[in-house]
Amino acid sequence: MITANDIRAKFISFFEDRGHNQVHSSSLVPIDDPTLLFTNAGMNQFKNIFLGLETRNYKRAVTSQKCVRAGGKHNDLDTVGKTARHHTFFEMLGNFSFGDYFKKEAIAFAWEFLTKELKLSTDNLYITVYQDDDEAYEYWEQTTGFSSNKILRLGEKDNFWSMGETGPCGPCSEIHFDRGIKHSCSAPDCGLGKCDCDRWLEIWNLVFMQYNRDDKGVLTTLPKPSIDTGLGLERIVSIMQQVNSNYETDLLKPLINEVEKLSNKKYDQGLSGFPFRVIADHARSCTFLISDGVLPSNDGRGYVLRRIIRRAVRFGKSLGINNSFLYKMSPKVMELMKDSYPELADKLEFVQKIIKNEEERFQETLNDGLKIVTEVIKSLKEKGQTQISGKEAFNLYDTYGFPLDLTKDIAEEENLTVDTLGFENAMKEQRDRARNAQKDNQTWDIALTFAKYAGNEKETLFTGYDSLSEKGQI
Ligand code: ATP
Ligand code: MG
Ligand code: MG
Ligand code: MG
């Protein structure tokens, strides 16, 4: 069997042989880019080259980039485990041209790699192009010999790629793999570009980088048209290993097996295997995120990490695992990935300590929170209602440390929804209260400082208290 490591290596050497410089994956925490939560594509580390703000001594690059899509424009957190192909953490293989080759060569390289190097049969392959990109359409026609039944023109949603709300972007062409009729969904018009089911596996996106989008949404032409591509490693591995899910590949199956050992339960590829898949996925993302310097916290990147860990812990609980367990999966993640990402090995002990600590913290409130949520659900059902109120979701968040998406997961399992807007309002109200209290504290601090310098701390202290309470601020 061809391994994931073989495929990654084949990709790198294929493009090295064609004049590309191998560049190591950048960190999951984007350097100097506040517009981006986490590195979400191979092109991120080259953004300034595309924008013409930086030059390098090479015009072609090849990478295997670690990516996390769990927040911001590209957020797959809710999809993980439901589809066979979406992860929070995944690897994107990519070849890049910085003002060097353009559409024609990018198309030819991709086709050669898939059909000659990996020897994929063209029968299952389909192409999509941006609706009015006649040039790309013609190159695909010439390169593949396909006609309009296998080269589809799609709109902006599918075939215009943007990194985030701002930044480099452009029309794109994508290569898809048809897994066959047995993977069709129940939609009557199940088809490429029409539905999102696992039958139609998007494997490779070739982005024709031509524009920069500014914060007002205005597109300007980049100094030089460039190429940015992204081939999902887990997906191409699933095809090459002839399995029907990324979770069956040698990248993720060993992690599923770990969950089996920890829970003493058997994995099933169907619906009941959902918690196993989530845990396997989340073990990778939190191990990688912490080793790149992210720590659990209450906002920003750290809060996304906290949500990921807590979500895994709750799914662990649903498999009957009552103690800290997630940290026990990191050595396996390291073992599977260390050849490509040696940084994991150096940080393993630290990573495990952070995960264990976060798990233990959450274990303290998880059981009580679960009791509350069970009561809430019971009473909703008795009343024939279908939505957990924003106030209740906020209470679970505030008192029991349940991130909103965790409450949503639980609600979904019971065919209920959560009033997200109500949650946000409750959150805002609490923030406003906290802000006001802080203002009072600041006024108080000023009064204290003033009193100290005036040398009559006691008297002023008392006056200050009085005057503040008179204004109704405390
Ligand atoms: P999808 O439509 O399947 O969500 P995408 O269009 O969002 O994918 P791109 O932004 O085009 O993905 O990224 C390039 C490639 O990276 C995809 O073609 C796919 O192979 C891979 N990829 C994207 N998102 C994920 C993910 N969450 N998990 C695993 N691989 C992914
Ligand atoms: Mg997507
Ligand atoms: Mg897509
Ligand atoms: Mg895409």
TrEMBL record:
GO MF, one annotated term: zinc ion binding
Superkingdom assignment: Bacteria
Keywords: Aminoacyl-tRNA synthetase, ATP-binding, Coiled coil, Cytoplasm, Ligase, Metal-binding, Nucleotide-binding, Protein biosynthesis, RNA-binding, tRNA-binding, Zinc
Signal sequence annotation: none
Cofactor binding, note field: Binds 1 zinc ion per subunit.
A biological-process GO annotation: alanyl-tRNA aminoacylation
Keyword Transferase part of the UniProt annotation: no
Enzyme class: ligase
Protein name per Swiss-Prot or TrEMBL: Alanine--tRNA ligase
The organism of origin for this protein: Desulfonispora thiosulfatigenes DSM 11270
Upper lineage: Bacteria, Bacillati, Bacillota, Clostridia, Eubacteriales
Residues of the full protein shown: 1 to 474 of 882
